[in-house]
What we know:
The structure holds five protein chains of five kinds. In chain C, 39% of the residues lie in helices and 25% in strands.
Amino acid sequence: GCTSGNSSSTSESGAALTIAKPDGAIATESNNPWIGESSGMKLGYLNAILEPLGIVNLVSPSDEVRPWLASEITWTDDYRAVTLVARDGVTWNDGEDFTAEDIEFTFTMFTTKPELDTAALGITDVTRDGDSVTVTFAGSMFSKQDKVLHKQILPKHIWESVEDPATFANPNPVGTGPYVLSQFDTQSVELTARDDYWGGKLAVPTLYYVSYNDNTALTTALANGDADWAQAFIPNVKSAYLDKDPENNVYWAAAGLAIDTMFVNTQTKPFNDVAFRKAMNLVIDRTQYADIAREGSVPVVSSVTGLPTPVGDPFISAEYKGETYKVDADAAKSLLKDAGYTWAGKSLVDPSGAPVTFALSVPQGWNDYVTGISLIADAAKSLGVEATVDTPDSDTWWEAKGTGDFQAILHWTDTGATPYDLYSNMMDGRWLKPLGESADFNFGRFDSPKATAALNEYTNAADDATRGAALETVQKIFVDEVPAMPVGTRPFIGAFNTRSYVGWPGEDNPYAPADPTQPTAVLILTELEAAN
Amino acid sequence: MTHKRNAFGRLGQTFAMFRNGKSVAGLSILGAFCLVAIFGDWIAPYGPLDKDFTALRQAPSWVHWLGTTHMGEDVLSQIIYGTRGVLVVGFTAGVIATFIAVGIGVTAGYVTGWRSESLSALTNVFLVIPGLPLIIIIASQYENPSLLLISSVLAITGWAWGGRVLRAQTMSLRNRDFIQAARANGEPLYRIIAVEMLPNLTAIIASSFVGTVIAAVLGLTTLAFIGVIPITNLNWGTILFWAQQNGAFPDFWWWYVPAGLCIALLGMALSLINFGIDEYVNPRLRSAGERARAMRKKGFVLSDRVTAVRPRATDDDSTRQ
Amino acid sequence: MTTLEFRDVTKKYRVRGSGELIALDKVNFTLTSGRTIALVGQSGSGKSTIAKILTQLERVSSGQVLLDGTPIPTWGRPLRRYRQTVRMVFQDPFASLNPYHTIRHHIERPLRLDRVVPADQVEEEVFRLLNRVRLSPEQTIDRRPHELSGGQRQRVAIARALASRPALLIADEPVSMLDVSIRLEVLNLLAELQREANLGVLYITHDLATARHFSDEIMVLHHGKVVEHGPSDDVILHPTHPYTLALRDASPDPEKHFAASTTIPGATT
Amino acid sequence: MRFILRRTAFYAFTAWAAITINFFLPRMMKGDPVSAYLQKNQGRISPEAIDSLRTLFGLDSTKSLLEQYIDYWQLLLSGDLGRSFSKGLAPVTDVIASAIPWTIGLVGLATVLSFALGTAIGGLIGWRRGSRADAIVPVATFFSTVPYFWMGLIAIAVFSTTLGWFPASHAYDKGTQPGFSLEFAGQVIQHGFLPALTLVIGSLGGWILGMRNMMITVLDEDYVTVAQAKGLRPVRVLINYAARNASLPQLSSFAMSLGFIVGGTLVMELVFSYPGAGKLLLDATTAKDYPLMQGLFLVITLAVLVANIIADVAYAILDPRTRQMEA
Amino acid sequence: MTTDDLLTVSQFSVSYDVNPPVEAVRDVSITVRRGEILGLAGESGCGKTTLAYGIQRLLKPPAVITSGSAVFHDESGEDIDINTMDDVQLRAFRWEKASMVFQGAMNALNPIITIGAQLQDVFSTHRPAMSRREHRLEAGRLLDIVGVGSGRLRSYPHELSGGMRQRVMIAMALALKPQLMIMDEPTTALDVLVQREILDQISDLRKEFGFSVIFITHDLPLLLEISDRIAVMREGRIVEIDTARNLYENPRHDYTRRLLASFPSLTGERGGFVRRPSESALDAESGVTVQ
Ligand SMILES: Nc1ncnc2c1ncn2[C@@H]1O[C@H](COP(=O)(O)OP(=O)(O)OP(=O)(O)O)[C@@H](O)[C@H]1O
Ligand SMILES: Nc1ncnc2c1ncn2[C@@H]1O[C@H](COP(=O)(O)OP(=O)(O)OP(=O)(O)O)[C@@H](O)[C@H]1O
Ligand SMILES: [Mg+2]
Ligand SMILES: [Mg+2]
């Protein structure tokens, strides 16, 4: 049964909406937007108080950027500078007017206090001219547009007197957003709608932000209606969640431009041989990964370019349009045979005569990954390869990952408005470090100057044609040389229900990821409408 | 002839504490688990990690007696294979912890003055240190912590209680006349501890051993459940971990109920053994428990505070009936 | 001929809270092989303390204990050799035998430890000792203490003490827990051994009657001080110290009772 | 006096050793707060941010471990426990203060209840030994050998999800401000019921068994027989002579178990999303949040030590025999 | 008044229903006269304590009274058959009519309750009409009587010496002025001086209150001195019962004779007696083969 009782403590204007996270105790109030672990950021309620300049649709990057606090957003062609015009008629929730000075102030903070620049934007200059602010960057921001525009703007009149922004608890968070903090409590945080919000009237009068101690507890809460909206991976989503209220419960995993991928050590055996990499790539069953490791609750990565669909479709080069991953052990074997591999009985022997084995490792407790590598290890058997599964503790694994002390691991890629991050993370020479030194990405030490150059060109180019060509090169190298093996999509997950409110983003209207902890949540909050 | 009797008699006395109904019941259950652990490979219908992708999350059936996991692994086989890990860790941890506890506790009890106090302080420090982070920290020093390492860590965090009990007991023993007599006979220290004292402590050592085994088994499963221990060490805790991570609670009962019951059953068996030992150490408990039923049958009301009067004649009648 | 001499021995115990307790205060006496000294005195007067000092289970606070004129060793091999000369029978027969070990173990240990006889004769010697204390070796050797009666245990304890063939034996209230018939039996045994092996015995008791009959001298201890010391008959029949007198008068003595023919209070015969 | 000095020295040593270990332990762990933070945010924070994060967390200093240790003592003695990385750089004292009352409230209540109930039941079973009530012992033991999380999850499945009698998580309803209202109290009770119940059931066995065994031992003491021979009513014998003496050892274990309350029961907090120190400790450990770990360790250590002292004192008060020896 | 009987025990048997059953007391018949001290002697384990507890029905399972009766002849003239009483009646009977001083007084007092409280217990149960103050006064008076002093009412047992504790027990036994007092080895653990003091006190008290005493001990010399009559027990049976003097002078049973021969005289002649070759007789009884 569904007991929606608790969540719909209906006031006269509508039901409250409970937004939940599985992050454990909230402990202390801190509405500091700079610290990812402050209560405001962790629970995400600051996203309903503070607003970004513009909204980049990460689930459909080809969409136009939606201006938000900036009424106009103009990039230079090389994306090294952006001019932002402050929106008129916006007020802070303490009554002050919002102006371009606030934008200027916020971006200047990153230059005076570089430690706050956690997105590594590298701002070199901020200038203001009346209503418009121009921010100049050290590099091209083409693939980081979202990170620039999603920066939430802070009120200058509050923050200019703050000595140490990192430890300021910001007890009365002032923002331009639709909601104000009305009550903080370690159990739940209550936000109420502003009636003077610039964007107009809001359907949801009250928001509650609640934290559960783990995923299981959160799933229980979503299933029985204690919580309405969450960004949470729900194992076994159908019976555990959807079936509890098939009419209203929605679980939407919208692929963004990020994937789970198997990094393989391209410097050591056996993955230093591209033929073996290709063969392995041919036996990994992505559908199985999505179905079993991720419980059928995420889309399958199907394009051989590794780009998730449909979000990545516009970026897939003509050559690979429609080409999808297929499990083909025979093809893989013949590839290997051609490369000089033989079989002793059932086990694969490499050209030098050594049996082929490798170890897959992911941290213990990372349950979907562990399932994932178990599946891959099974798949490797079909080639006659003995693959072992290691699950060290996460710190050990993390260190080994950085120094390249592994043969194969599962890892994610960053996400962005373009496929740049995704590919760069897997094959870019700019991450390259010798084995033993800690690398931040390209853990497999894939060393291809051509790929590095193409990626550079893609992100720094001043026109779309050059970009397109560069991306084509990147994809060709990716497919031909298999620097890493994508195994699954890494979607933006949202679980919510339509009992009280409709207007959520979804398959048919993917205007934003349904993730309440993103700066884009403000868009969803303004789009919601009462259900009847 | 006399020698034989001697040897057997001694053995008999050493294990006399296991010779009562409760201990025997506990030992039988434990024995069954041991057999499962040893012969797991033969008993289990499938490999523990064999995946059958056509049978995901299936309820118990004739093919899979206890159903399957999200990867189509056979739950029964996992439980059978998991037994070994649980028993190995439990017993290794018990042995190590008992060694430390005996070493430190008995020494602390036998010596006096500051030496005793500092050993006792050491024991207290180990009682005070929070176990969980210690386990995480030590486990993280190693790439792929072996069962032995995990057992050692559980032992290190678990010996202190036994050490305290043993110290107290040794302190009361050391002033007993027969220990004094051994001293007066000129027995060397090690012999006094090993030959004169330890046998008298066996029951307490055994009971503290059983106690640490229970604690280690619960600790192991809890750690595995929280995800602190590598799940490659298949055991009942990891089964529960997977079950919980994959949303088995509460719908897929076959996935989590058997493992939990196994842990409880093993714990129960161990505490039955402990009951037995307790009764051996304290014969009053024995007469209270074991004989109680027999006496009730004979018509005694044990809580009676008045001596029963039962003339022999009628007694005979009633027994005959 | 072995003599053991207490010279001005004082023993102080530290007691929690109330500082020091003087358990023995300048005690002097000499114990010689072939003779028996009875040590009497009320509970807590320091009798067992003397015994423990003699076996070096306790150290003296001041004063000296001399064995044949030289201070007794306190450490290591010499101490072990000394302990071989002076053996003790503990006060409580129920507590002084290790419940876990057989009678064989108890008697064998000192034999092996002190290498009294070659290893292959140990068994024989155990039999001999058991026979000596009139226990049937066949029946007792493989038993454990709890399978024996109090009197039997007492005899095992004596056999153990005698195993190393000591020159001096300290018997700390060896019969206090036994009833009269067993009591006599044990004492007779000691007397016999004394005669045969020229054993010196320190017989600690609070039973004046047996003290008188089984010993050559009696020493009366009162609050850690020796208040009277002399040939046993003298001490009992002509006590000089009021405490000894009180002790004597308090001891039940049916002979005197019925001889004086006093009517028992309240009794109507 | 000597005795008290010695005890004090003894406790001071234990405290020093534990606190020192508490300092070095977290630093022996692999990994550091920044990579832990990146791990936690799997892909939501770019590794390019590492340097900023280091500065932000104050990890850019190059002090040696010894210097840090000295600093740590200085801060500790001035009552400053630092700021917590994983809780938005909030002062550790605040973070702990927000969790401890709940832990102490619920776990403490459960401990007290379980002790009181267990002792009472154990006392009665011991008193009426051989009666059918003996069957309670194995049942209670069974529950104490069941893994707690398992029992908790099943309790949620049954009483919360299926029957809907009790909320499955948190300490009170969302949107309620803690205060001394009847409504709030009601909520706290409703939310605390399941966790407390499972805690009590899980730990009852030990108390019952301990008390029963002691009771049986005490019942054979002469003074109990004397009390009966005096013609006292059974209730009076039970309470004044048997239970009173039998519960002494229980009380000292109880004082010890009070010390472990502060550490909370991690598993309970996980399963019931209950605010408390146990989960905080796990969070701090996975986040490599040294200051918070140290702070929690400190509080736990002190609590156990204080409980130890209480145990000593309680025993001295309750058992006049020890009082004399230690006066 | 003193010649009539107070307690008649006839054919009394108690056995411990264990495997194999122990018949600890077998067909014992004795009478206790009003005002007398009846000594009960016998070797350790012969059933003295069992008999004493048994007639008060204080034994716990597995003990069972298998035959016989114990009839208490109350002052009021009423005959009370102890074996037929139920719980409640027995509670009223105990201590009121017959009280007891237990073997090993060390353990007979609850170590964690003041002796005052333990004394007052008796009054609050049996004399509920009295006020608490009276209870206290009465308890203090009792302690004065036995020479402990009412000042010690608030002492705990461990603060008293063994002798004092024993006296507290006696005070407690006296509390309700019972007609019968059973004393099970009340002085065994004490040294002779204290023992003597207590014995004298019992005699004095008996003179004052006129109760009867069953005095149990294995110390025959002591019994000979203080009892009017002595019963010698062996293996659960009474083998001989007679006045102290008769028993001393003309023991009829072998065992009695042996007992009498086993203690040396304090002031009498020394020598011969001790090393008298009486061993063969002794060893035949001790159950161990003699060489
Ligand atoms: N280890 C000790 N610490 C402190 N005091 C002690 C210690 N051992 C004995 N005493 C004290 O020393 C005194 C003498 O004790 P000891 O045992 O020698 O007496 P005893 O004459 O043997 O008495 P008993 O007849 O009861 O055996 C007593 O007051 C006792 O309390
Ligand atoms: N609970 C019991 N179960 C079985 N046998 C018992 C029990 N209690 C006593 N006995 C046996 O009953 C017999 C009589 O015991 P009792 O205590 O009456 O002896 P006693 O004459 O008082 O001895 P003592 O002088 O040692 O006090 C003994 O042989 C004893 O072993
Ligand atoms: Mg003594
Ligand atoms: Mg007796």
